[in-house]
């Protein structure tokens, strides 16, 4: 019964609270255990909530850089295409042109996402500001270039763990209708796995800082 814009705002706020704040909270607790400075549940919740303004600023910067830099990389290609006489799309074909443009945009975009992946942990666990968190994350991922595949696998698993639980009830409707317990498990697996992934991020962040 709510207007569509209100629903969109609520969905965005819920996604932020679940994905960002849960990761921040779990990271705070795990970091305390790894550094032999345990944080109570209440204290971890208070610290993660206190960092919300900094997290919002961090997300704004990440989105800005992740969209602006790839566009600036793509811009010379667009200028070159515009300077070529005739219709370059007809010369090479639209699929080829779209693929080249997509690759030119996607490569720096994905690279920046990787370089900024631990900015959230730096912001919450390290108590850094948004810009400083980006710098710390950049430094950690530079030291972990040899573990790029490991971080990519963890990141992919984190994303899939949020997607599959929502699609599983539809894919396996017959199974879940026969077993209500299976339906509950499929609905909860994303939340459970998100805690595992957040713990892994915190662990890698602490290792990067210590080393």
From TrEMBL:
Alphabetical list of Pfam families matching this protein: DUF7847
Protein name (database record): DUF7847 domain-containing protein
Start and end residues of each DUF7847 domain: 8-198
InterPro entries (alphabetical): DUF7847
Swiss-Prot/TrEMBL keywords: Membrane, Transmembrane, Transmembrane helix
Organism field: Natronococcus jeotgali DSM 18795
Transmembrane segments: 12-34, 55-84, 96-118, 148-164, 184-206
